[in-house]
Amino acid sequence: MTLKIPKIVIVGGGAGGLELATQLGRKLGKKNLAQIILVDKNRTHIWKPLLHEVATGSLDADLDGVVYSAHAAKHGYQFQLGTFCGLTAEDKSISVAPITDETGKVLLPERQITFDKLVIAIGSVSNDFNTPGVQENCFFLDSHQQANRFHHALLDSFTRVHQSDSINELNIAIVGAGATGVELSAELYHVTDLLKVYGLSKMTADKLNIYLIEAGPRILPALTERIALSARNELAQLGVTVLENTRINEATATGFLTSEGKLISANLMLWAAGIKAPDFIKQMDFFELNRANQIKVKKDLRSTVNDDIYVIGDSCAFEQADGTFVPPRAQSAHQMAQCAEKNIINDLNGQPSVEYVYVDHGSLVNLSDYSTVGSLMGNLTKNSMFIEGKVARFVYMSLYRMHQKAIHGTGKTMALWVAEKLMRVVRPRMKLH
Q1: CA of 337: how far to CAs of 10, 31, 340, in Å?
Q2: N or C terminus of the chain: which is more exposed, having fewer CB within 10 Å?
Q3: DSSP 3-state assignment of 250?
Q4: Positive/negative CA dihedral, 194, 188, 433, 422
Q5: If you ran DSSP here, which 8-state letter would residue 187 be given?
Q6: Pairing between β-strand 66-67 and β-strand 93-96 as defined by DSSP bridges
Q7: Torsion angle defined by CA atoms of residues 155, 159, 160 and 162, in that order, rounded to the nearest 10 degrees
């Protein structure tokens, strides 16, 4: 008689979900101690903090992405393409929406996937706060598909200015001066400087006008004032117009309308102000949620309504001792994946769970090739150390290498680093298609 092995289903292949699937695949899947299934609506993974580079063409998602199916075959888990759309706790199953082709033809009908343990790692989406016109007129950076959409529009705009005798400027307005908005602003100036190398010499940086709009009193509100001030100075030197204490009432076809009735004209508009868990989580009416639709969890990352369901990453509402929720950062997702891995294995072995404790290692903001600023948290003193320049850039890039190590292992991560160095010799420095 064949013993039934437990089935662990992970929904969402972002930073936390992919790391968890990889580690459980290595420790359980390859040894046939559990069946690990990763479900994601995309076929490839891109580390979300790098989506602003995909949007500008500094990073090619087609070349730098991780293909889930190929990665799964090497690391002991299975991959199923599909969009999570429902949950039946009684049957311990999730629903996955139909898969259609480009014409709308159904390739695979809606299906159910049963589980013994479920991990929800669906990430977050931009929160437009129901601002009129945003959905119709703005770009977002929630996925690499959306980043590619912005990239294509950006290339069209570059070409339009370059080939026109009468158009002398390109206006780009970005709402939300968190890390995404700040890093995108700097990256846009970086790629504009590269255009002359690739024949678009008339589209120069002096024709680029970027408006970075923040409703609060300063940019980077989640970080220290010193980091924010340093980043603001760097952006000012590049030419970015920073508009703080500026609330947007409406997005129109020609720009953003502020609460004071002023129109900020823009050819391209991007919304990066705040995040929330996808709305369908609220519509399920199953979990306890906070105001950002994030799913409330217990101290061991199990949902408050079902002990067989864990939640990690941006969709997780983990309340800390001071009453605040763990911030939606890549380092949070990484730490949650490690804790969930321990607890799932402990649970299968009949051992007690461990509590999740968020450790803030600091924050870094990468201003393209111009600068990097941020702070590191001292492990011994718990004090924050301000860093900038090349040292900060090195630490910033090491965060991505840590993510690669978690999903590929040390050997392949080193090989990828060497390959990236070699590819810079033959590949354009920006994607031009």
Answers
A1: 11, 20, 5
A2: N
A3: strand
A4: positive
A5: H
A6: unpaired
A7: 140
